[in-house]
Design brief:
heterodimer, A: 91 residues, alpha+beta, 5-stranded mixed beta sheet, 5 strands, B: 427 residues, alpha/beta, Rossmann fold, 6-stranded mixed beta sheet, 4-stranded parallel beta sheet, MoaD/ThiS family protein (chain A), Beta-grasp_dom_sf (chain A)
């Protein structure tokens, strides 16, 4: 199932400068694996050594923060918009 | 919204003692530039300094001879040495009020102080952080200032942009208090209401910054955040200087993103390292509203990570459900022997009234949170009433009038007879 993934500036070195790329997968975990296959290195930036989302990465699937959903197991239906955002802000 | 074509500059940046950006998680260093997240681990970047070495007495005299605003601490901040000569709002050096009446009411015997940051130019502590971000924006060649805001920051950015000669375009949740909306709009910049919570606004701005639509914009709390955050250190500097160059024993700080609390800790540690204050223990307490208390919940549950929540509280300036610096707040509260506590909206309003009634200080809801949490921590035996305690009030009650239903004691005809009948006469 194809989804679009919005790539933050600091990861665009892995996507040839592209701000948005396509990926495949029925869950966020599978989408990240798909991203890694096409853009080697991305997964290690987004996931920590134990394979969990890094604590300063926020990921949204269709406007929903995956931490409110099922984390890496959050479903990503065809046509979903996935957004990866550094969790640094406030005020 | 116009698209700016300014390419930010990263060369020949003069930001005083700031030497580099350093990742708080993995320690990786980066040149001073308008970036905010580590390219390796997404961790937050903060300023690494080459702070002045030498005689603490000489540095203390130099500070004391400086202007009565945050620029007296310019040698400790990421700003050029001539910062005080540039057009700006020059915030800071607000009153540290010895709150003896409140102390009596709460049973504090060791000295209770309110650091009243409602005295800043736009009536909140945000003027401090924005002032530092403005200098970074100048250094990097930005011409538009922006931010995601729960209200106070939008006003502070609008005002600072007007004085310093920037265009501004700021973003807020669409349902903020009227006082904050007016204060954000009056300075002539663009104000955009976003249909959603602060966390939605924040996410929107984080995406905008990576898009050509936001290119060349200095988002004070996003791509200028490493610089911006340092402004909160000045609260620590001022409190210690105003206590006679002494660390407070206990300090109660509101938590929204958690940045302010972490930077106050950083500021206190710097003063110790520079020999400006005696090295002795201090305890830092964090204060949240029950309706948005992810850090308090994590502290009480013994967790190291903060689970985001959907905010629902009258303390809108603290209504950040996904506080980026939450894990660091937990570390600091535990390291210093402090705590993180929360109070209900009703307790917030009671605390606003308590502070107003005892000290003549009208706090915004965030100030109600810190005073309310202070009261609760004393009652619970967590905060030691025999020690010197400083409570932060970070904003002006005029911005959150709706939170406090106050009105006339009586409305009467203009006659002595009517006044007598109202039962309010002397004696």
């Amino acid at each position: 199932m194809s989804v679009t993934v919005r790539i933050p500036t600091i990861l665009r070195t892995y996507t040839g400068g592209k701000a948005e790329v396509s990926a495949e997968g029925a869950t966020l975990s599978e989408v990240i694996q798909s991203l890694e296959a096409d853009h080697t290195g991305v997964a290690a930036r987004v996931l920590d050594d134990s394979g969990k989302l890094r604590r300063f990465v926020n990921v949204y699937v269709n406007d929903d923060d995956v931490r409110f959903e099922q984390g890496l197991q959050t479903p990503t239906p065809a046509g979903s918009a996935v957004s990866v955002i550094p969790a640094v802000a406030g005020g | 919204m116009a698209v700016q074509s300014v390419e930010p500059s990263t060369t020949s940046v003069d930001l005083g003692p700031a030497a580099a950006l350093s990742c708080r998680e993995c320690g990786e260093r980066f040149p001073l530039s308008p970036i905010f997240a580590c390219a390796l681990c997404f961790g937050p970047l903060e300023i690494a300094y080459e702070l002045p070495a030498g005689d603490p007495e000489a540095l203390r005299r130099r500070i004391e001879a400086g202007p009565a605003n945050i620029w007296r601490y310019a040698p400790l901040l990421p700003v050029p040495a001539d910062v005080a000569d540039k057009p700006g709002l020059n915030p800071g050096f607000t009153k540290l009020v010895k709150a003896d009446n409140l102390a009596r009411e709460l049973g504090v015997t060791g000295g209770l102080y309110v650091k009243d940051d409602s005295g800043n130019p736009t009536h909140s502590f945000k003027d401090r952080v924005v002032a530092i971000a403005v200098e970074a924006a100048r250094a990097f060649g930005f011409t538009t200032l922006s931010c995601s805001s729960t209200g106070n920051l939008a006003g502070a950015v609008g005002a600072a942009a007007a004085r310093a000669g920037f265009r501004s375009c700021v973003f807020i949740p669409h349902d903020l208090e009227a006082g904050k909306v007016v204060m954000a709009a009056v300075y002539g910049g663009d104000l955009v209401g976003i249909e959603g919570t602060y966390d939605d606004v924040n996410r929107f701005c984080s995406e905008l910054i990576g898009d050509p639509l936001g290119e060349g914009w200095g988002f004070v709390n996003v791509n200028l955040r490493p610089y911006y955050g340092e402004g909160s250190k000045t609260l620590a500097y001022e409190i210690c200087e105003q206590l006679g160059w002494r660390l407070p024993d206990q300090i109660v700080v509101p938590i929204a993103s958690g940045s302010q609390l972490t930077k106050i800790d950083k500021g206190l540690k710097e003063l110790v390292a520079l020999g400006l204050v005696e090295d002795r223990p201090y305890r830092i307490f964090g204060a949240q509203a029950e309706g948005c208390s992810p850090v308090s919940r994590a502290f009480k549950d013994g967790h190291d990570v903060v689970r985001p929540v959907k905010p629902d509280t009258i303390a809108k300036s603290l209504a950040i459900g996904n506080p980026a610096d939450g894990p660091y707040v937990l570390d600091i509260a535990r390291r210093t022997g402090g705590a993180v506590e929360d109070v209900t909206d009703e307790q917030i309003v009671d605390a606003i009234r308590l502070l107003a009634r005892t000290e003549g200080i009208f706090a915004e809801t965030a100030g109600g949170v810190t005073v309310g949490v202070t009261k609760k921590l004393i009652e619970d035996g967590v905060l030691d009433p025999s020690l010197t305690t400083v409570v932060l009030n970070t904003g002006d009650g005029l911005k959150t009038l709706d939170a406090v239903a106050a009105g006339p004691t009586a409305t009467i005809r203009p006659s002595l007879e009517a006044f007598r009948a109202a039962g309010l006469a002397a004696g």
